Amino acid sequence: MDLKRFLSAAGFEIDANAVKIHFASNQGSDPLLAFYEGRFKAWQEEQTQRNFNRPYVLGLIQLEGKSSWLYAGLYQVLGVAAETQTGWQYDTELVRGQEELVGRVVIRYAKLFRNSYPAFETCGDSLRVVELKRERASISAFPGYKNVLLKKQELDVVVSQSLDSWRSALSSVSGVYVIVDRSSGKQYVGSAYGEGGIWSRWCEYSASGHGGNKELKALLKQESPSHSRQFQFSILEVCDLSFSKDQVIARESHWKNALCSREHGLNGN
Description:
Elements: H1 3-9, E1 19-24, H2 31-36, H3 40-45, E2 46-47, E3 56-62, E4 68-83, E5 87-94, E6 105-108, H4 120-123, E7 128-132, E8 150-151, H5 152-160, H6 164-171, E9 173-181, E10 187-192, H7 197-208, H8 214-222, E11 231-240, H9 245-259
Helix pairs in contact: 5-7, 6-7
């Protein structure tokens, strides 16, 4: 079923000539993470140009794969003002009654053009509803220690929302982790031990970006604090919380040797 018919069945009639579609993709900032954090509306309202020149805007957020989009809602445009920093600041309001649909409807559409703000009538009839999720989309539950792969922005969501499955799993183990600078491929190997385990340590990275590490602090000073958005976190090895500090550091040293993170990465010792 196409999205227009789906929304009509749900009680929302769309006048194609009154709607702009916003294909929100990750171009410098991440709209999906903004959605997870509950700030997509504010994220969408900041535009570098006057893109929403119709009464309504329909937000779609790109998912994994270029052809999958998450329904973020139909918004009424209430006003717009010129701003010096963002270009144009919109005032919008989610059309009432959509709360049960936002973040649950997945749409399939192969977008083959660059324009992120087409008129609805140009492609709206080709937006196919392929899934209605049982629950609103969110950061997935803890995937297991071997499958952890978090961008810094995703870690921030996990920490700020104190997601139960992540907090429980990461606070119950010590271990060795690796941070990869995705812009350069360089690796930083670190370890966590003692009370709070990996969870406590990663909360420090979320708060500061560098976690107090000398090498990472130097990198962020050289690039900019926002460069921490290039960091990606994963776990190399888990240890029981009963492991001593020396035992965990010995495993950290092993992984530094194995990955050559002193010679070719971001470890200074």
